[in-house]
Design goal:
CATH architecture of the largest domain: Roll
CATH topology of the largest domain: Ubiquitin-like (UB roll)
Number of domains: 2
Strand order of the largest sheet: 2-1-5-3-4
CATH class of the largest domain: Alpha Beta
Oligomer: single chain
Number of strands: 5
Shape: globular
Low-confidence stretches: none
Strand content: 15-25%
Order of helices and strands: EEHEEEHHHHH
Length: about 150
């Protein structure tokens, strides 16, 4: 079985996996980082969103063989203390309801404000499009992103 060196949350991990193994399953099953959730398995719902070189990407659609030498950050690595501006704003606006999609929502939102510190409503809608929330907390998500962009 092939071996891969991955940098995840600032730490180096040696992974044995088939070339086409999705990053999602490496994170959850081999490294025990279970904050990244399985939603649809085809990159459409956003529950599995992580940062790869600072960009929000769907880990279920990324093959482990594509990721050597890249900087991967999961929800567990976003902030050691849980005090990232997005995380603070999420709490302030009481965003989560069931919570299942929230790690993906937070990772997408964090990449948005990193790359666009003062997003418009249109920017937020565009960036968050494809991150599904079955509980419908979209209004609170947008409010939290606006608050975080001011922090």
């Amino acid at each position: 079985m092939p071996t891969f060196q991955l940098k995840i949350n600032g730490e180096s991990h040696t992974i044995e996996a088939d070339n086409d193994t999705p990053l999602l399953w490496v994170l959850r099953d081999q490294i025990d980082l279970v904050g990244t959730k399985y939603g649809c398995g085809i990159g459409q719902c956003g529950a599995c969103t992580v940062h790869v070189n600072g960009n929000a990407l769907r880990s279920c659609a990324l093959q482990v063989s594509q990721l050597q030498g890249m900087d991967i950050v999961t929800i567990e690595g976003l902030s050691k203390e849980g005090d990232h501006p997005i995380q603070k704003a999420w709490l302030e606006h009481d965003v989560p309801q069931c919570g299942y999609c929230q790690s993906g929502q937070i990772m997408t939102a964090a990449a948005l404000i990193k790359n666009n510190p003062n997003p418009t409503d249109k920017d937020i809608d565009s960036a968050m499009d494809g991150n599904l929330c079955r509980c419908g907390t979209y209004v609170r998500i947008k409010q939290a992103i606006k608050t975080a962009s001011k922090l």
